[in-house]
């Protein structure tokens, strides 16, 4: 027994020594840190990643690049990082999909709670409920009346199964206890085009996509999905869904950073410390505000709190998706 205890102590000491050495050497001068974005280049998540990569270079003292690995609602890119060497040089930047994949996909090549080290949250992106310009309703109260008068006839667009707009739409229908016809598109752009053209009635999507259309009066805006009203000039007069009667309605698209499971704790700490510095970078904050995003300043920037938050989101969205019976396979 004493021999086993001694061996266990030696193993723990070796592991600690290797972790400390990895942290001391991380990041190596001749190595590049790759942020994997599980979506195509040019989209909102890609923009967040590129802004963050730039803000991380100085505190990390390393080259940080973005690599897009799109497909299957972000699960292909996430799987790539889950399989990567746990050394801190390949990390994942993903959004709310981290909390919806466990329910949307019956078979995943990884476990969101168990196959990643959580590095910290980055931002929150509010969402807006918008309608076609010819919709009879001009405010949220009138919209609810119109919805109740047209049950079974309403087309609710989304950017694809598992997209932010799909999730917001599910939550909105659940809150109102009204079924609408889901019309999926291959991205937000064609969905908004059809909304403007009157082919669909409603869309709930993030401010990064809807604000220009609201400013240009190409769509009708009814509400925001966050607990508090927004300060963006074009959106500041919009009520929240919570204050409009949908108690506790709160949907935002958040982004976080993840490393493969087994990445040394000291390396996780180094990346997290660099992230905290990046999130205070004035230029990064300015760019995020330009996207309608709010940079995280609360405890969710800590790895443990980030993981706790994601688990709560998994529970929330799992219930919504299960009730709707909408799966990716």
UniProtKB/TrEMBL annotation:
PANTHER family: BLR1237 PROTEIN (PTHR42928:SF5), TRICARBOXYLATE-BINDING PROTEIN (PTHR42928). InterPro entries: BUG, Bug_dom1. Residues 1-22 form the signal peptide. It comes from the Bacteria. Keywords: Signal. This is Tripartite tricarboxylate transporter substrate-binding protein. Belongs to the UPF0065 (bug) family. Coiled coil: none annotated. It comes from Acidovorax lacteus.
